[in-house]
Each structure stands twice: as C-alpha cells, then as structure tokens.
From TrEMBL:
It is found in: Periplasm. Keywords: Periplasm, Signal. InterPro entries: Gal_mutarotase_sf_dom (IPR011013), GH-type_carb-bd (IPR014718), Glucan_biosyn_MdoG/MdoD (IPR014438), Glucan_biosyn_MdoG_C (IPR007444), Ig-like_fold (IPR013783), Ig_E-set (IPR014756), TAT_signal (IPR006311). This is Glucans biosynthesis protein. Pathway: Glycan metabolism; osmoregulated periplasmic glucan (OPG) biosynthesis. Residues 40-524 form the Glucan biosynthesis periplasmic MdoG C-terminal domain. One of its GO terms (molecular function) is catalytic activity. It comes from the Bacteria. GO terms for biological process: beta-glucan biosynthetic process. It holds the Pfam family MdoG. It comes from Chelatococcus caeni. Residues 1-28 form the signal peptide. One of its GO terms (cellular component) is outer membrane-bounded periplasmic space. Belongs to the OpgD/OpgG family.
Length: 527
C-alpha cells in the first residue's frame, strides 16, 4: 500500500499554476504551455477506456527513472509550485488548482488538461512553474515530463484565514487512483481511491491502476462547484471517472464511473476507502508509544439495505483479516473517526480532527458485501485498513461496470441513526477484582450514548442482547454512567473462550420490545 506518511509529506511540498491560448481570457495571464487542441466529452472518455480495454495493457511513458530516484523525500519537499501560476487563479470559478511534482515516490506522470467549449488541451510541464533549489535534480527532467497530481485550493473569495487559498487546499489527487479531502475540521486523514483490485488475495499481488489523464472543466464565473474527469488504466482494467465536487462544511463528491475489465479479478473493490488504525482505547500494547491512541479512523459504520445501523470497531489484527458484511442495495457505509477528544491522542498532528468518510450509493447496487480488510501494522505510517463494496457477481474479463455514488467528507456520518450509538469499546482481564483472574476470560466494556437511552424510566435497565460465534458469556451488566450526560450507558460482560481463532460478536440494547441502540459488531482475537 502507498506509504501514508510519504503521501502526506509529498502533498505538502508544492503549490500553484495559470494558462494561455484557447482558454478564456482569465486563464491567459501567466503563459502556461499547451499541447494541441482536441475534442472532449465524458462519453468520449468512456469510449476511449472501452477501446483501451480491448488491447493489452501498455504502461505510459515516464521520465528517466535515474533522475526521479534522486528526487527523494528531502529534495521533493523543497520543490514548491508557485501560487501565482495556479490554474484558475484569477477565475473563473472560486477554486484555483495547483500541481504536484514528480519524484522518487510518484514516478508515473499524470497528463493534465483544461477543457473549454468542448475542447481540451494539455498543460505542458515546465520547471519554471516551480520554485526549486539550483542543485535540484528536477532541473534535469525534460520539458513535458508531466505532473504527479493536483489539488484544489480554498476559495479565492474566502475571508477565513484558515481557508486562504494560497495556504490551504481542500482536495488532492496523488498516487495511483488515490484522492482525499479535508472534512469540517480542516484536516486530511484517510483516503479514497478509484478502484481496489486483489486486496489481500492469497497468491496474488495487489494491483494499483492509476489515473493517467485528468481533465479540468472550466467552471462558470464564480462557481462553487468543480468538475474533473479522469482516465484510469492498469494491467487488468481501464475506466473513466467524473468527479463533481463541492466545498461546504466538509466536502461532497458526486462520482460517476464506468469500468472495463481486461482480466478476471478475484476481489473487485468498488468505492474503496483506505485508512490507518494502529491502536485505540480498545487494545493497546504496553508502552508501545507515548500517545494514548493513534488512528485516522476507529470504526466501520454500515447502514444496510434492510435499515440496520451497525458499528464495527477496527482492529490491528495479528494477521491479515478479511471480513465480509453481506447486503443488498446498501444505504451507505463509511470509515469514521468517532473519538473527537484531543486528550485521547495528545498529538500535534490532530488525530481528533481527522475526517470521517461516508459512501452513499446511487441507484441499484444489487447483491454483494461491504468487505473490510485489516492488515497488521506496528507504526502509524502505513494505511492498513480498506473498506469497499464487492459485488456478488464475479468480475470477469470483457465485462462493463457502471457505478455512481456520493462521498461525504465530514466530521460525522451524514445520516446518523436516531438510536444510541457505541462510543467506546474497551477490553481487559476477565473475572472480578480481588479474585484470581481466570485464564481464557476477557472482559468487555461497551459504552452507548443517545436519546433513547435518556428516556429509560427510573429504576429500569436496558437489556444487553449478546451473541458470539463461540464461547460463553458471564457477569453481564448494564448501568448508567454516574455524573454524566443523560443517555450514557455502559455494558460489561465476560467472554470465556478457548483457542486463538477469531470470535465474531454482536451486541445491542433493548427495553422490552424496543431496540435502543445500533448494533455493535466486533471480531475478537483471543491471546
């Protein structure tokens, strides 16, 4: 997987652009170089992807690798795009575009184009668009080498210093088909990508198709919406994507994609999300790090086609684990950061502000599963969590797949349940204080909070409904937390289990026939 720290550091390394020629006069100020003019439409891009899929894959040409290898982490960090050259810096639209430079960790060039009046022309790379040291290896790259990626800056009309376009961006595309956006709390965190192929499939390497060509639609004057089309290509697949993006409280992305398979794919991951989870209050190895928690996301949320709301806390498992949540026409799923308390992290990189990302399907997605891949990690630099939709029908060579969905980059999920939600999962030694702690027994402490739990009549207690794939429960108790806000309840129980194979678990609270909370799912790894 792409190294998260490299992704973040590289994304901070560059800045801006501008234009000439065929484009509107507002783009002509800075004298960018352009290639030849060609007709463009999204339908034509789809047709191009279809034609490509009928031919053997051929990797796009790239600049000399010996030069790119010398543009290492430090050298790349010293190359900065000049804000005065930002595409759309003076309009039209609100959001200027700046570009990332190629380097050791991003060697595949992406061809950038501006579209106006149904015509597209490539923005030709030139080193003069960047500030770089006189001894930078980047000076040796040939003209027209291409860019590594791009980002949209904040609005030119903003008055909030946090959203000054010259100092802040709100969406970035960088590396393969990866992209990310900030939420309502002005922080990057997890990423999305166009496609995920063969993630954690035994005997098969994961494939990383890339956005090779990007087309920026020239926006209407003052528009608060941006539209970008991308051509995807890889050994097993080609495709076309259209992103319509809005910057508001967070970021909304409406995505239409059409994909064509060159080869059979075992695990065909659509609308994939990628995040990092090292440890949280649930399980923390003794003194592994000075910080109490480290994660970009702490759980997978599901809203099933049947209407059930599910919360599955993430794990850093002892080995790579794939979990499948079968569904038909899901209403949504996402990787969320629910824990927003700074003192739970104590880190200046602000894990408490990382965005949550929710996938809202459009149309009929049919039968399939939300699959969760959890990969062991011993550091925060690795993205070790993947969540994606995998259709039930096999992904065969020669097939076409159309998918539309909306991504919500926010502080919380956009359609939260009205039931109580799980806000903490903690594990400890089983048994009772003052007594010998029995082997093979684990204590669970779950916290639920929400309006239905605040209306429980005095003297009554909700009933925990528990299930496990194996093992037995004991010491089951539900209690309201003292000196806290109404509607905050804790459920505790012990699980006794033998062996080390994972245990699937399930819990919710009810009062009589009334369900009070979402469903907590967990995969426990005995140790």
């Amino acid at each position: 997987m792409i190294d998260r720290r490299t992704l973040l550091a590289s994304a901070a390394a560059t800045a801006g652009l501008a234009a000439t020629g065929f484009a509107p006069a507002a783009l002509a100020a800075q004298g960018l170089k352009f290639g030849n003019e060609a007709p463009f439409s999204f339908d034509a891009l789809v047709a191009r992807a279809e034609a490509m899929a009928k031919r053997p894959y051929k990797a796009p040409p790239a600049p000399p690798s010996d030069i790119l290898e010398r543009i290492d982490y430090d050298a790349h960090g010293k190359i900065r795009f000049k804000p005065d050259y930002a595409l759309f810096a003076d309009g039209p639209g609100q959001f200027p575009v700046t570009f990332f430079h190629l380097g050791r960790y991003f060697q595949s060039p992406v061809r950038m184009h501006v579209v106006a009046n149904g015509k597209a022309r490539e923005i030709v790379y030139d080193e003069r668009y960047f500030d770089m040291p006189a001894d930078s290896p980047a000076h040796e790259l040939p003209a027209g080498s291409g860019f590594a990626g791009f980002r949209f800056q904040e609005s030119r009309f903003g008055t909030d210093p946090k959203r000054d376009w010259r100092g802040n961006d709100w969406v970035a595309f960088l590396g393969a088909s990866y992209f990310r956006a900030i939420g309502a709390l002005y922080q990057y965190g997890l990423s999305a990508r166009g496609i995920a192929l063969e993630v954690a499939v035994a005997g098969k390497p994961e494939e990383f198709p890339a956005f090779t060509h990007v087309y920026f639609d020239t926006p209407a004057d003052g528009s608060d919406t941006v539209t970008v089309c991308c051509l995807l290509d890889g050994p097993s697949i080609s495709g076309a994507y259209r992103f319509v993006m809005q910057r508001g409280e967070g970021v909304l992305m409406d995505i239409d994609s059409t994909l064509f398979l060159r080869s059979d794919v075992t695990r065909f991951g659509l609308a994939p999300l990628t995040s990092m989870y090292w440890y949280s209050e649930t399980v923390k190895p003794t003194a592994v790090d000075w910080r109490p928690e480290i994660h970009d996301s702490d759980g997978l949320a599901l809203w099933t086609g049947a209407g059930e709301h599910i919360w599955r806390p993430l794990n850093n498992p002892p080995r790579t684990i794939a979990s499948a949540f079968q569904d038909e026409n899901p209403r949504g799923f996402g990787l969320l950061q629910r824990d927003r308390a700074f003192d739970h992290y104590l880190d200046g990189v602000f894990y408490d502000r990382r965005p949550s990302l929710w996938v809202e399907p459009k149309g009929d997605w049919g039968k399939g599963a939300v699959e969760l891949i959890e990969i062991p990690t011993d550091d925060e630099i690795h993205d070790n969590i993947v969540a994606m939709w995998v259709p039930r029908e096999p992904a065969k060579a020669g097939t076409r797949h159309d998918l539309s969905y909306r991504l919500h980059w926010l502080a919380d999920e956009p359609f939260p349940t009205t039931l109580g939600r799980c806000v903490a999962t903690r594990l400890g030694n089983g048994g009772q204080p003052g007594q010998p702690r029995p082997a093979g027994v684990r204590k669970f402490m779950l916290e639920f909070r929400g309006p239905p739990l605040a209306t429980i009549p005095f003297g009554e207690e909700p009933e925990p409904v528990l299930w496990a794939s194996r093992g037995s429960f004991s010491y089951i108790l539900a209690e309201a937390l003292p000196n806290d806000v109404p509607g905050h309840w804790r459920v505790q129980f012990d699980l006794t289990v033998e062996g080390t194979e994972p245990v699937e678990m399930r819990c919710f609270l009810k009062l009589g026939d009334q369900v009070l909370t979402e469903t907590w799912l967990y995969q426990y790894h005995p140790f």
